[in-house]
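User: tokens in, sequence out, please.
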């Protein structure tokens, strides 16, 4: 009974409990209530609950916890489970997938340390990569990540290998500044960089051009006890070549060999590249010989490097020999090898040879790649064969290729340089439609094209459009706009833009400083240019060879050769070697200042430095001797040039032809002109089959032009302009006018140069009314006259005695949107002086200075001549003193004028002699017409402005 009762009691009790439990469950479903410890946990309790769930690997239960992910919770969980990497990884992944939460830098650093300690390196690298990729971190100094890694390291006391991992990852991503922070500090925590990480850091430093830093880092690596390998050796050879010269690199290799390291083919290739960079091809060949002696087989990269060196120096025959060497060896020339040759020929304008090499490559069964096609497009554009460039561009699809942004930009640049601005804009629009969004490079090309075309207002509109589309201008953008302002004579606008450039932080950019210096030099403002140069150094900018060459060229153009050589000396003291371009400027300067005896000395010095004359050098020499009427010297240099494998260009051909016209050798000029043109197009010119007679040198030149014409036929518009200019210079203006009329009937479209040449010819011949008629024709054909055109008209009016009309035209220039230049002022000043209006002439000189135009030696010579004619010798001497104080050196013409004016003052003559004698201004420095002023100085300046070799280049 008791037992039954007891049993009954137990049963009832269990039933009661079951009933309560069931009632509880039913109730919970209705009100959705949870126990207190499931929804009102404080943070320590919540973290404890999360960690227990993670340790038990019951991650699904985390969804039942009511909490929001935060940095505090994530960091607390990672710290508490730091010895359980799998649990930490699971929770970090879960946190990383949340819609409104992302782990911060501290959490990333913790998980990287935790995973690295357990040698879960692949997973650690994933999150380290994400950490470095965070934009706000990647753009910082790098100390944020490193400082946090250090803090976690100190808290956890494990995984110093993380520092080596982050060092390598920074290096591989090219974030060398961040990598250097890690490298400099990781030793403090007992962690030594691995050799692989060190090699990665060194390699990327060299790749970014920080070779000097790479050498310092290498020394620290050696001091830390890290043993380098052959890969380290190869990297350091590149570093030494770029920083301390290839000779230091050779010493380094020898030292490593003494330590037992055997250089491999990559090491030798680096040495060859070093010699190639400095143009020492004989030494590069010597390295290849050394490789053979040490049983280090040359590979395709070795031969390609050698080929690049020959192509760089324009020695294409030698480059092709290297290709033959590859064919004779067991190596196979690939499309990269052929591409180097194609590009080499394209760079020097030998497009027939470039196509020949491409066809040879196709015959070998190799496919044409986009790089080769881009080289051909670029070559044809630079050779002004835009039709061929278009054909290659449109034919890319036939090769299964698609044009890239470089293809588009190259052709856009070709159109812009060729004056086809509309086509350039059409192609840039097509580029946008094809998915290649125009970049700042594209805009820079279009800006330069518009500025060169004289459409500066359109250039400003494009600039505003570029800013509106969110394209940030770079240093080239600003430099292009700056050059455009200088070109239109807007000196004040250029200064305003320059201040804006400096305000935007381009204070250390060499390109913008060079653009400013170049603009000032072209205006003859050498004092201001020198100030900008000094400002550049003051702000930490580093002048390059272009900076020094621009300054030197500026001084050469104003005839101050002493200052030009001072710039050259200063450049060489800075460790920058004189370039061919520097010598070219100095050669032109000697001709400008009539110091002809120094030209040959300069050529000897140039040859002693290992520099070979290029096509521009020969152009300057031939042009200089042609101006001096020494055609024998010009012919000799022409033959020397062709003997050295250089093909005459437009400038050289037109210089010779123009000189023949000027010297009255019309038949010879016509004969040469027809050699480089379609004869039928020039039927209006007299043509002789054998105009050379006994002139052997001329005959040789004519024969060489037969070969030139096969590869390089001058565009028709240039040929016509040369012919018209030649006839005008021969004072056969009516013949030029008749030829012009005949050409118009055949569809010739004259440009600014054509009209300007005719206007100058008519004005110089005294037919001013005819010059104005041509000016009106020019306007009717929508060709805007430039300042050179109006200079010709003003000169013609002054020569014909119509000074008042010349003055009125001068004052109208501003309304025509033109700014007078030094030639304009000199021409009008000369007119005032001839009319005995010295007060007006001197006032004009003051106005010239107020307008920002610097007086030249011609300016002062005109005024001194005028004062001397009036007998005002004291005023002329005062003006001479002012001229010297302004930094302008008087010429023999200036002094001879003063001598004539002071002929009765014996004492003053003695004083002038004492000034002239130390300057070594010999009596033969100028021609008889110049010293005697038989021809107005401004006229000679105008003639110089119309030299054909300058006009067509």
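Assistant: Sequence out:
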């Amino acid at each position: 009974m008791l037992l039954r009762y007891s049993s009954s009691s137990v049963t009832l009790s269990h039933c009661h409990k079951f009933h309560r439990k069931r009632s509880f469950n039913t109730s919970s479903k209705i009100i959705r209530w949870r126990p207190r410890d499931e929804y009102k946990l404080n943070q320590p309790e919540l973290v404890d609950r999360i960690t227990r769930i993670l340790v038990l690997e019951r991650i699904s239960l985390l969804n039942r916890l009511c909490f929001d992910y935060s940095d505090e919770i994530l960091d607390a969980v990672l710290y508490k489970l730091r010895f359980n990497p799998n649990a930490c990884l699971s929770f970090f992944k879960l946190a990383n997938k949340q819609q409104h939460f992302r782990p911060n830098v501290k959490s990333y650093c913790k998980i990287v340390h935790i995973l690295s300690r357990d040698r879960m390196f692949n997973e650690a690298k994933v999150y380290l990569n994400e950490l470095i990729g965070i934009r706000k971190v990647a753009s910082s100094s790098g100390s944020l990540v490193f400082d946090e890694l250090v803090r976690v390291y100190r808290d956890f006391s494990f995984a110093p290998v993380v520092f080596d991992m982050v060092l390598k990852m920074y290096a591989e991503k090219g974030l060398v500044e961040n990598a250097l922070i890690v490298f400099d500090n990781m030793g403090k925590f007992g962690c030594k960089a691995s050799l692989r990480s060190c090699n990665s850091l060194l390699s990327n430093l060299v790749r970014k051009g920080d070779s000097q830093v790479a050498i310092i880092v290498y020394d620290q690596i050696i001091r830390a006890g890290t043993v380098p390998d052959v890969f380290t050796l190869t990297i350091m050879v590149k570093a030494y070549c770029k920083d301390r010269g290839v000779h230091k690199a050779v010493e380094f290799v020898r030292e490593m060999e003494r330590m037992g390291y055997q250089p491999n083919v990559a090491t030798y290739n680096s040495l060859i590249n070093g010699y190639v960079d400095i143009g020492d091809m004989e030494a590069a060949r010597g390295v290849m010989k050394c490789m053979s002696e040490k049983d280090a087989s040359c590979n395709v990269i070795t031969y390609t490097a050698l080929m690049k060196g020959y192509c760089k120096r324009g020695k294409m025959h030698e480059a092709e020999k290297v290709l033959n060497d590859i064919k004779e060896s067991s190596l196979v020339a690939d499309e990269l090898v052929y591409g180097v040759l194609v590009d080499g020929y394209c760079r020097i304008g030998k497009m027939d040879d470039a196509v020949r090499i491409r066809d040879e490559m196709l015959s070998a069964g190799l496919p044409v790649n986009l790089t080769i096609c881009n080289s051909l497009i670029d070559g044809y554009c630079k050779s002004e064969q835009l039709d061929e460039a278009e054909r290659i561009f449109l034919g890319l699809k036939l090769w299964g290729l698609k044009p890239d942004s470089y293809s588009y930009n190259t052709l856009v640049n070709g159109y812009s340089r060729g004056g086809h601005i509309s086509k350039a804009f059409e192609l840039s629009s097509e580029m946008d439609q094809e998915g290649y969004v125009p970049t700042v490079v594209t805009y820079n090309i279009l800006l330069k094209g518009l500025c060169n075309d004289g459409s500066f207002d359109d250039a400003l509109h494009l600039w505003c459009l570029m800013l509106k589309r969110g394209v940030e201008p770079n240093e080239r953008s600003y430099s292009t706009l700056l050059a455009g302002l200088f070109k239109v004579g807007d000196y004040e606008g250029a200064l305003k833009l320059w201040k804006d450039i400096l305000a935007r932080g381009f204070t250390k950019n060499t390109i913008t400083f060079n653009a400013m210096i170049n603009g000032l030099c072209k205006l003859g403002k050498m004092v201001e240019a020198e100030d900008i140069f000094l400002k550049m150094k003051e702000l930490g900018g580093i002048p390059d060879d272009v900076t020094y060459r621009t300054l030197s060229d500026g001084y050469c153009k104003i005839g101050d050769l002493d200052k030009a050589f001072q710039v050259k000396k200063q450049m060489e003291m800075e460790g920058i070697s004189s370039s061919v371009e520097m010598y070219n400027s100095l050669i032109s300067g000697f001709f400008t200042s009539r110091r002809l005896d120094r030209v040959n000395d300069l050529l000897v010095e140039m040859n002693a430095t290992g520099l070979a004359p290029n096509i521009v050098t020969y152009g300057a020499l031939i042009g200089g001797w042609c101006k001096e009427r020494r055609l024998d010297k010009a012919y000799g240099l022409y033959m020397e040039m062709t003997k050295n494998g250089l093909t005459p260009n437009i400038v050289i051909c037109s210089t010779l032809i123009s000189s023949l016209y000027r010297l009255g050798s019309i038949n010879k000029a016509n004969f040469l002109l027809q050699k480089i043109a379609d004869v039928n197009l020039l039927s209006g010119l007299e043509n002789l089959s054998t105009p050379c007679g006994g002139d052997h040198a001329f005959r040789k030149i004519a024969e060489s032009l037969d070969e030139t014409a096969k590869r390089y036929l001058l565009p028709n518009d240039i040929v016509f302009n040369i012919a018209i200019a030649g006839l005008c210079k021969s004072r056969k203006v009516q013949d030029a006018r008749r030829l012009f009329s005949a050409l118009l009937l055949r569809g010739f479209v004259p440009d600014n140069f054509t009209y300007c040449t005719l206007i100058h010819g008519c004005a110089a011949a005294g037919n001013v009314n005819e010059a104005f008629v041509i000016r009106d024709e020019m306007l009717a054909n929508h060709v805007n006259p430039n300042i050179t055109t109006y200079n010709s008209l003003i000169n013609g009016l002054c020569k014909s005695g119509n000074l008042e009309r010349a003055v009125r035209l001068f004052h109208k220039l501003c309304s025509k949107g033109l700014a007078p230049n030094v030639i304009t002022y000199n021409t009008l000043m000369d007119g005032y002086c001839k009319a005995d209006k010295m007060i007006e002439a001197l006032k004009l000189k003051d106005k010239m200075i107020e307008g920002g135009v610097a007086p030249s030696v011609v300016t002062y010579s005109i005024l001194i001549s005028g004062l001397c004619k009036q007998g005002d010798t004291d005023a002329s001497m005062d003006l001479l003193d002012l001229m010297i104080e302004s930094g302008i050196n008087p010429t023999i013409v200036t002094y001879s004028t003063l001598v004539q004016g002071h002929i009765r003052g014996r004492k003053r003559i003695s004083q002038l002699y004492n000034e002239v004698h130390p300057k070594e201004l010999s009596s033969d420095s100028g021609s008889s017409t110049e010293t005697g002023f038989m021809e107005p100085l401004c006229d000679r300046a105008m003639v110089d402005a119309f030299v054909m070799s300058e006009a067509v280049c």
